[in-house]
From TrEMBL:
This is Cytochrome P450. InterPro entries: Cyt_P450, Cyt_P450_B, Cyt_P450_CS, Cyt_P450_sf. PROSITE patterns: CYTOCHROME_P450. Keywords: Heme, Iron, Metal-binding, Monooxygenase, Oxidoreductase. It comes from the Bacteria. Pfam families: p450 (PF00067). Belongs to the cytochrome P450 family. The keyword Cytoplasm does not apply.
Amino acid sequence: MTERPVPASELYTDEFAADPYPSYARLRADRPVCPVSSPRFDSYLISRFDDARTALTDPRLSKDLYGPGQHYLRIFGPNSEGLNKNMLNSDPPEHTRLRRIVSQAFAPRRIEALRPRVAEIVDTLLDRIVPRGGCDLMRDFAIPLPMLVISDLLGIPESDHERVLDWTQVIRTSGSANRSPEKDRAAVQEAQLRLHQYLTDLVQDKRAHPADDLIGALVDACDRDGELSEQELVTTTFLLLFAGHQTTADFIGNATVALLTHPDQLELLLASPELLPSAIEELLRFDGPLPVASPRIATEDIEYQGVCIPRGSVVGVAINSANRDPEHFADPDRLDVRRERAPHIGFGYGVHYCLGVSLARMEAQIGLGTLLRRLPGLRLGVPVAELRRLPAASPFRGLLELPVRFAA
């Protein structure tokens, strides 16, 4: 059967951005698979846990946006191919080949070796914050922490960190109210072009001056083994740069707000820091940074929950909705840092399961744990209703700012 689309006016509002979970609950109950109109592109949204896991492994839902049909045009726009044609937007065997090349850099043993460096970055950032008694936690901690870590891993020179961060933040905040639509599009396109040119030049520099870093390894895979094309080399670097910091930054912000608005859970965590690993999983389930999985394309007419999804349709899997499905999580709208590790899909599922999961967990544990320990009396600097968030149409769930106060 077919259904009328859920209009953008119901889902892409400031109220939805502040708290999407009542809307997700209504969709799970009444319209678990439904067409949705959005400011960016129309799609079908899957919101229940079982359907979500099935869809994330359904071979009829393709991730190849750059193949026949050029679906990337309606999703990313005409200037996206230089940065977004990468393993995130591809199917096996291309995805398998690209992931294999990069996966060694994210092996748990190699990531664990980064622990002292991550702890050093966390302490350096907090050393600047602690004496002040207050800060914008996004600007001063949550965003720079993973950006510095992934820059080290990739081999981006320290002298370039600030401008690279500026470009990525322009892309991240696309659609925010602080820019008109015309200026927003122009700013994002300019940032994309500058970042693409920078990464292209950086690859050439690594080729001329080989280095023991991830970009150097990718250059070697391109030049010596022929396993990467030049375009794949640049776009893979962009994917690792952006994915390597964006979701972790938003997770730290979301997790901090969740704990500060659930003081009983914050007290539990402060009293029992050994709960931190399981608390990270619960915080990710409760309010994750990636509300809807990156787009998929139906390669044939398919049916979910009695709803026909026509061939060529964009399909979104609502991860944050699935992670609050009462069929799988007891009392799902309650934050419980003692909750037994639940099989959430905050890191995805199937062949596109997050490649950087070990790094993300380590950064979250060190960053959040040290933050809570070194900022006693941590509290929001504004009422929660006044927090400025990324727009509801953003592919990320996060904060533009996070003003906090604490005992200096």
